[in-house]
Design brief:
about 250 residues; mainly alpha
C-alpha cells in the first residue's frame, strides 16, 4: 500500500510547479535573469557536453560495427549511429550529465538561500520567489536542453565519422549518404521533445528540493543529492514513456 505521505509529496510538488509555470508570462520582465541562467546552464556546460558527446559517438560506432559485423553492410553503420544518437543517446546522456551538474547547482543555490532566510527576505519585499528565482531557471532549462542536445548530436555524429574514416576507411560520401537516405524528421524532433521534457524534470525537481531544504549545510547537501537521484530516475522514466508513446505500436 502506497503511504499517504507519498501522495502529499506529489501534490505539494505539483502545486509548487504550478505556481512556477503560471509566471511564464513574466518572461520578458525577467529577461535579464533568464539570460544569466542561459549562460549558467548552457555556455558553462558546453565543454562538458562536447567531451561526453564525442566519446558517445566513438563508442557507438565501435559497438555498432562490432555487433553487426557480417550481418549488415558497413555503409549502414552511420545510419544506426545517427538514429541512435538523435532519438536516444544524446538527449538522455546530455540530460543525465546536466542533472548532475546543473540540477545539483540549482538545488544548492536555492537551498543555501532557503537556510539563510534569503528567500524569506525576498518575500518580505512582496516579490514571489516563484517569479524571481524559480521561473527563470525552469524556462532557461527548457530552452537550453534542446540546444545542447543539438550540439551533442552534431559532435557525436562527427566523432563517429572521424573514427569510422580512420579505422574502417569509410569515406565522407559513404558515411553521410546513408544518414541522408534513412533520415526521418521524427528522429530529430523526438530527441528534441525528450530534451524539453528532461529540462523541465531537472529544473522542477532542483528548484523544489532547494526550496524545501532545511537543517543548514547538511540539508543543502541532501537536497542536491536528492535532485540528482530523482532527476535521473525521472529522465529514464520519461524516456520510456515517450518511446512507448511513439514506438509502442511497432
Amino acid at each position: 500500500m502506497i503511504p499517504l505521505k507519498f501522495f502529499r509529496l506529489i501534490g505539494d510538488f505539483t502545486l509548487f510547479n504550478y505556481k512556477t509555470v503560471k509566471y511564464f508570462s513574466f518572461f520578458v520582465k525577467r529577461r535579464f535573469v533568464i539570460l544569466n541562467q542561459l549562460k549558467q546552464i548552457g555556455y558553462n556546460s558546453i565543454l562538458l557536453i562536447i567531451v561526453t558527446s564525442a566519446f558517445t559517438g566513438l563508442v557507438t560506432v565501435l559497438q555498432a560495427t562490432y555487433q553487426t559485423k557480417g550481418y549488415i553492410p558497413l555503409s549502414l553503420i552511420s545510419m544506426m549511429v545517427a538514429k541512435t544518437s538523435m532519438i536516444e543517446l544524446c538527449p538522455v546522456l546530455t540530460s543525465l550529465v546536466l542533472a548532475g551538474k546543473v540540477g545539483a547547482a540549482i538545488s544548492a543555490e536555492i537551498g543555501s538561500m532557503k537556510v539563510t532566510e534569503q528567500i524569506e527576505a525576498i518575500e518580505s519585499m512582496s516579490v514571489d520567489p516563484h517569479e524571481f528565482l524559480y521561473m527563470p531557471k525552469v524556462i532557461s532549462s527548457l530552452i537550453m536542453l534542446p540546444i545542447l542536445t543539438i550540439v551533442s548530436i552534431i559532435i557525436a555524429i562527427s566523432s563517429a565519422f572521424i573514427f569510422a574514416n580512420k579505422f574502417y576507411h569509410m569515406t565522407m560520401n559513404m558515411f553521410f549518404l546513408s544518414i541522408k537516405v534513412f533520415f526521418e524528421p521524427l528522429d530529430l524532433w523526438l530527441g528534441l521533445i525528450k530534451a524539453v521534457c528532461f529540462g523541465f524534470i531537472i529544473s522542477s525537481i532542483a528548484t523544489y528540493n532547494g526550496a524545501k531544504a532545511s537543517g543548514g549545510a547538511e540539508g543543502v547537501g541532501q537536497a542536491s543529492t536528492n535532485t540528482v537521484i530523482y532527476s535521473s530516475i525521472g529522465i529514464l522514466m520519461m524516456d520510456f514513456l515517450i518511446a512507448q508513446l511513439f514506438f509502442g505500436g511497432y
